[in-house]
Amino acid sequence: MSCRTDEIAKLDKKISDLREYDKICKQRKEHLNNTTQFIDEILSEGSGTICTANGGLPPEDRRKLYYDHIFLVA
Predict the structure, then answer these.
(1) Are 37 and 59 in contact (CB under 8 A)?
(2) Under the phi-then-psi rule, with left for phi > 0, alpha for psi from -120 to 50, and beta for the rest, what region is 55?
(3) What is the pLDDT of residues 42-62, one digit of tens each?
(4) CA–CA separation, 20 vs 37, rounded Å?
(5) Mean pLDDT of the chain
(6) How many helices (H) and strands (E) does the chain have?
(7) What is the C-alpha separation between 74 and 70, in angstroms, rounded?
């Protein structure tokens, strides 16, 4: 094969890999959006406090505490 043909094959492979990566990223983003909506629903159902550990924080702050916990555990 010529050098040009090799280069085209490499670029085609890279394009294919990036399309697959993009597909996976979109799926993960959708999953995270669904998880965020689920958490927001749970937090909005509360009476204003989830537990005494959060001191009755507003939903935005409780969500941040939850996500911080997830990232620290993961």
Answers:
(1) no
(2) left
(3) 777 765 444 545 555 566 666
(4) 26
(5) 76
(6) 2, 0
(7) 6
CA angle (41, 33, 40) in 5-degree steps:
15
CA angle, residues 51, 53, 57, in degrees to nearest 5:
75
Taken as a whole, the chain contains a residue count of: 74
pLDDT for the residue 50: 47
Instruction: For residue 59, count other CB atoms closer than 10 A to its CB.
Output: 15
Percent of the chain predicted with pLDDT > 90: 38
Instruction: Report in angstroms the alpha-carbon separations of 43 from 9, 22, 34.
Output: 51, 31, 14
In terms of Cα–Cα distance, which of 59, 55, 33 is closest to 44? 59
Global pTM reads 0.50
